[in-house]
Fold this protein.
Amino acid sequence: MTQLALIKKAVSFINKKTKNFKPEIALITGSGLAASVPALTRKVTIPYKDIPGFLRSTVPGHTGNLIFGMYQGRPIVVMQGRFHYYEGHPMKDLAISIRTLKMLGVQKLLVSAAVGSMNMKLKPGSLCVLKDHINFMCNNPLIGNHDPAFGPMFFDLTVAYNKDMRKTALTAAKKIKINAAEGVYLAVTGPNFETPSEIQLFKKWGADVVGMSVVPEVLVARQCGIDVLGLAWVTNMGCGISKTPLSHEETIQETKKIESKFKELLEILFVKL
Ligand code: HPA
């Protein structure tokens, strides 16, 4: 079966469950960030495992549900838990969920993630609003996966992260006293954290934060014309800058601390974006 046929099956399954709910804004929650989703009305929750063709989320801290609902008149869908390349999913399968969102009607995508920071102005607890990225995964979900139904094969990434959305996010963050700044995300495959030398190299390359997700989703979304906002929460300084060894437990612990601020931010963004 082609990916398009598989996605059409997923979409018709979802449409039956939601009675053709048409979400405008999608949010993907990163590690430990699922609890920050604002309360939605007319909520319908569909576990990933029930959706034909959907992947399963296997990482602790990533629950696997699609949640549909309204927030103050805006139709929202939340991908509670994401899929990572390091879980062993073939890179092109990472396109399935994003292309499904597109076919459901999504126009704006908010990707959230936990990241390590190489920028001393972005300490743990800070928000990096992504202005660009460097794809150091050395792979791409669009390779061998072209279907004109999802946009052109060759497309421009001068502005991968929507400028208006970035401005709205920075203004909202300031209003609720989150330390936030724009920055560049560098994507690694993981699952290991980086070495100190890698972090120094990435810093020289112009990266501010590093993580193991985001970029595949953004590439797929931009190809099919979805506007993207990247919200990267710093959970630790990068390896070698951090005084303690890095761990996934630390990531989850740190996200607990920003949970309520992130929820406040999303309550503003769901209305203003
Ligand atoms: N590196 C990569 N991914 C991460 C990090 C990190 O330091 N922290 C949270 N996610």
